[in-house]
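Reopening this ticket.

The earlier resolution said the output was attached, but the attachment link was broken on my side. Pasting everything inline this time so it's all in one place.
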Amino acid sequence: MRANHLTRVLRFCTVVLLISAVLAACAGSPQPGPPGSGPPVGEATSSSGTGARGNPQPPGSEPPGATEPPGGPTTRPPDGGPATTGPAGGWRVGARPLPLRPDGFGKVLPTPAALRDRRLPTLDRLPPPPGGRFRSSIRPVSPAVRARMGTTWKPGCPVGLADLRDVTVSFRGFDGRAHTGELVVHRRVAAGVVSVFARLYRARFPIEEMRLVTGADLTARPTGDGNNTAAFVCRAARKQTRWSAHAYGLAIDVDPFQNPYQRGDLVLPELASAYLDRGDRRPGMIHPGDVVTTAFAAIGWTWGGTWRTPKDLMHFSATGG
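Inline output:
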């Protein structure tokens, strides 16, 4: 009897040790994490105004030559807090954090009247293109750009910094002015991305904002009013553990507020429900066969607006995901 009891105890201890070893091995394997409490819209852009108006990038981290629109209605207070829009905009972006849902997203609320036909002015972070002509550049990710990216890239991401490119392109704002935007994309798609935004510029398709995603975007409380056109961020696809196409620099979200993401009762940005009515055409909205879908199709990219569920109207990717 004692021998049988001792055998059972030894077997039990062996099983416990094996399970502990497996758990330890899994914990040591790098895995993409799920969206945090301040989930980005379409994986790349924040539903808050973080890094743009809600929490501007730290002093000294902005690109050289960043400027405010001369005499324009967008201003930033001296304490570095949220920028505000004047009469032309009528809305303070990033100023009102939303209550959170159990899944960590913000509560989906009706679109405020000031945003139902959203045409907010653009805050210039880079000098506008000289003479109003389309300009572009493609460069390796410099140490300064890397610093501004913050935690959006880190060791263990599926693409190395050497394979990413810092791209600047001209775009037209809802204010009708020419502006300069910045994206980080994979080196093999950089030239194609420039060609897309050249076409959008010629067509005067309006874009509110185009800046690098920062670490602050990933941890911000959602405000549901972000509208940043963005590309690279190293994180998992929404509600999944596989890497997003954004984590490879192979996807771009365009005018998220005018082109929201929808899955069931979830709408992102959370205040953009008015733009689910695609029959009510307003500036910045993307439609089948328009200049945006045509330009991206010309470089072999697919549109999330063709998916059955979720509908990701802002999302274009080289991978189809």
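Reporter confirms the inline version is readable. The first helix runs from residue 2 to 27. The helical segments are 2-27, 143-149, 190-202, 215-219, 291-298.
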